[in-house]
Amino acid sequence: MDRLGAMRIFVRIVKAGNFSAVARELNTTQPTISKKITRLENELGVKLLRRSSREQELTEAGQVYFQRCQRILDEIDETESIVRHQTIAPQGTLRITAPVDFSHSILAPLLKDFLQLYTDIHVDLILDNREIDLVAEGVDVAIRVGELKDSSLFAKPVAESFFCMVASPEYLKQYGTPSRPEDLIKHNCITYSLLRVWDIVKNEKPGTVSVTGNMRCNNGDMILESALIGAGLAILPYWLVYEKLKAGSLKQIMQEAMPDAVPVSTVYLDKKYLPLKVQSFIDFFTTWAKVHPAFNL
Fold first, then answer.
1. Are residues 274 and 155 in the same domain?
2. What's the CATH number where 204 sits?
3. What is the pTM of this model?
4. Do residues 48 and 19 lie in contact, with contact meaning Cβ atoms separated by under 8 Å?
């Protein structure tokens, strides 16, 4: 049997927590994965996993085997990575997931520049505001905006996302320009769904202010369009509005009351072994963001 391949599958199962996710990742069936593990256990003469209908857990022998397999595979992957960096250009399909709004504003021009440089890479892009399972969906790298939740994944910050309160010149002419957090109660505030307060800075301290408005939405592009036609005030990421501010179709207000920037991060599965295509994308994104006006308020 392919012992090295079986070791990789076993490690993936332990990390993913189930057979189905690994089967989807490898584009095969759950029974096929199960047979490979059974064959591995028969070869070793020990049980590695205790299986039930919903989950599995490592046996004592499985824990030892898992730890040693990880070390062995890490060494192999690191060795191969070193050789690849010296002899092979980045290539293959790069599967990326990112939030919808961010992709429209930032990822489209970023990928255009990236793919012009790396002509042997093809991108498979999944747009989703949910934080999808990278293993289950076979994703190489995720782009996340905001503070990250604790997880077993690895992350690298590549930029900062600043916030701006904006309104159209027409709206401000008709309803006036707020200058203090207390003034917002008099205005129509377009908010993200489920939000009834805005994070703001009051008296140089982080705080919140209750706001009201006649519309909430779960899509930043829609909130932007509403602000552009004079429907109300909105707080949006700078990368979503910077071109409109430059053109004068939106005005920036109360910037001193905006909360601190949040990180834009690339998130991936493995720290020690990153495919060259993934490392190339992360490095390119980091360099690109440093000079892009969307990340320099």
1. yes
2. 3.40.190.10
3. 0.68
4. no
Indicate whether 87 pLDDT > 70: no
Distance, in Å, from the CA atom of 222 to the CA atom of 170, rounded to the nearest integer, reads 18
How many other CB atoms sit within 10 Å of the CB of residue 95? 19
Closest-CA residue to 13 (of 72, 43, 57): 57
Torsions phi, psi of 268, nearest 5?
A: -150, 170
Task: For residue range 140-177, list pLDDT tens digits in order.
Answer: 999 999 988 767 788 999 999 999 999 999 999 999 99
Domain of residue 25, residue span:
3-86
CB atoms under 10 Å from CB of 203, counted, come to 6
- Burial bucket for residue 93 (CB in 10 Å: 0-12, 13-18, 19+): exposed
Instruction: Give strand pairing partners of 192.
Output: 217
Tell how strand 262-268 and strand 154-161 pair up.
antiparallel
Which domain CATH number covers 41?
A: 1.10.10.10
Of 51, 86, 121, the residue that ends a domain is 86
**Greatest Cα pair distance in the chain:** 80
